[in-house]
Amino acid sequence: MKTVIIATKNKGKAKEFERLFSKYGIIVKTLVDVPEIPDIEETGKTFEENAVIKAEAIAKISDSYVVADDSGLVIDALDGRPGVFSARYAGEEKSDEANIDKVLSELAGVSEEDRTARFYCALAIAGPDIETVTVNGTCEGLILNERRGAGGFGYDPIFSVPSEGKTMAEMSAERKNELSHRAAAMKNLEPYIEKLS
User: Fold this and answer.
1) What are residue 22's DSSP bridge partners?
2) CA-CA 20 to 30 A from 146: which of 25, 39, 93, 190?
3) What is the pLDDT of residues 57-83, one digit of tens each?
4) 159-179: per-residue pLDDT in tens?
């Protein structure tokens, strides 16, 4: 029975990965289960680079298979920002509200059709006897002028998915998980998981 460490302490994220790995009989652990692993500094310029840095560093320390992700919001009118700085866009202190306010102020006066954006997720899988692989997934949408919905987190209240007519924050958790950039990236990771099992 193989074990994979998911490079997160986020329970919600871990659950998504558990669903995917369970059908291959792979046990999922998170960083909560291996507290001896230090925080890995993400110094990459792209989501892929950050995911690889995390996955390879933790695989080396733990001698295990590791899946790491890096994800964020990419807004076309802002030349791809907030990008890899999505979590701390408004400053070193993580604040969803401040990040949203900053994006809305930077997009003031930008027309609806020019507010295209996507949530982007890069996943890297690394381990003792495999070559590191990265895959990605996206969820396309538009940035609204104001917040809508009480669910989700991060930029969800201003990220509208036109095909659904709703923001990510207005969707059920189940529907959001089906459409998410992470779900898309996981689908692309599946062939590599099959090889592992």
Assistant:
1) none
2) 93
3) 999 999 999 999 999 999 999 999 999
4) 999 999 999 999 998 899 899
Question: Which pLDDT value is given to residue 197?
Answer: 76
Lookup: tokens for 43 = 């110094």
Give the span between the Cα atoms of 55 and 82, in whole angstroms: 23
Assess whether 79 carries a catalytic annotation.
no
Task: State yes or no: 182 annotated in a binding site.
Answer: yes
Nearest-angstrom CA–CA distance, 20 and 79: 33
The per-residue pLDDT for 1 is 61
Is 155 known to sit in a ligand binding site? yes
Q: Omega of the bond prior to 35 within 30 degrees of 0, cis? A: no
Q: Which one of 33, 69, 70, 96 is the catalytic residue?
A: 70
Report the chain's terminal Cα–Cα distance, integer Å: 8
pTM, entire model: 0.92
Distance CA 86, CA 99 (A): 8
Q: What is the CATH number of domain 3-196?
A: 3.90.950.10
94 a known binding residue?
A: no
**Separation CA 178–CA 161 (nearest Å):** 12
Task: Please indicate if the annotation marks 181 as binding a ligand.
Answer: yes
